[in-house]
Amino acid sequence: MIEFEQIFYAKSIAIVGASNKPSKAAHQIINTMLKGGYQGTIYPIHPREKDVLGLKCYQSISEIEESLDLLVIGVPAKEVYKIFLEASTRGDIKGAVILSAGFSETGDPELIELEDKIVNIAKKAGIRIFGPNCIGIINSDIKLSTSFAPVSKVANGNLAFITQSGSFGGSLLMLAEESPKPLGFNKWAHVGNMSDVTNIEILEYFGTDPKITSIGMYLEGLAHGNELLKIAKNITQKKPIFLLKVGRTELGSRATLSHTGIIAGSDKIYDGALKQSGIIRVDNMEELIDSLKASSTLPKPKGNKVCVLTEAGGPGIITIDEITKDNFLQLAPITDHTINQLKKVLYPMATICKPNGYIDMTAAALEKEHADSLRLVLEDPHVDSVILISLPPTFLPALNVAKSIAEVINKYNKPVAVCFMKGVKMLESRKFLEKNNIPTFDNPRRAARALINLTKASSYLKTE
Q: Lower CB density within 10 Å: C or N end of the chain?
């Protein structure tokens, strides 16, 4: 994995196709890294520019006398071949990101052949290729980013993501940025056409990286399912993998072929392989980001017994439906002692353990009732995790509730998925909770799915 370490921690990058035009991808990549504080050296390459964004511009990579680790190429497809001929003579380039599209994904035999020729040159020179049709890699440790997704900044964290779609990967970063506390990624990779570097190789690399505790993936198709199964099975014993696999239908499968040039394959076969490997499959982008959020911040549950503690009946029932439909989490068999204590702290109209494991505190519950009830269920030996749902009314400041439950949550090593219903009035309290490493969700279904997936992933982990 040392070759990927050298690429993701590149000390110098040449951007071929650099431009002073903001409409060009290469311009935006340089701008992103300059603003972000990339810790290496950037060499813009353009035959007619003298400087780009204040940096000296070189006519070709052969003019660069210093050592060069990474090549980012943003020129038309037919110009890429000669760039690799030039790159192959240097002997120091470890990796290349080909932004350019117009290769094997088109299905055109001539362009497929062109891609093959480029890969052959790169292999002989020891250069690993991301792409073509690719926006490359991010390593927030050193502020390296070849992505031109419209995000202001990728927060550093303990997550990693691998994608076969650049736009999906960029959208995920945007969604992560929208969280009350931006979700942090340590590394991110788009593999494009996978002419050389594959998502399996990156998965293996991320699996060995101690800075990464959870991995997300977007998958369209895969030629070597058995290899993925083998590698993932080892990783999921140490860290969770959450996957959005698209192309489930016949038409969707055909669309993936036109996008990346890869046949999606049988969805039933994928399902079976993923379950054997311990990968948790999700259904949409929101579920993927929620699962990553829960995994990056919550303690791992010791079992699948959950208590649903709600201040609002409707959202509580939605949560119960989601848990029942999935049939992995089970409502916790709360002890008679805990039930009796709950009756003492809650108002008479509260619904306590009907069914067992479900508690509706009602809108009469103030911050004290929230905190006391949460403390009691967390102390119950039969409770492995909690979904807490609240929509504090106008007479109860949501921030007061957030502060009261945060104090309780931080005393126990059990996961609590907090749902403060979506709305401007809830944003301040959600920001407070997430700054205290307590993930929040804006509707009960999302909270339930996140906890379900976290618990499934935790069931595969090997304890020390």
A: C
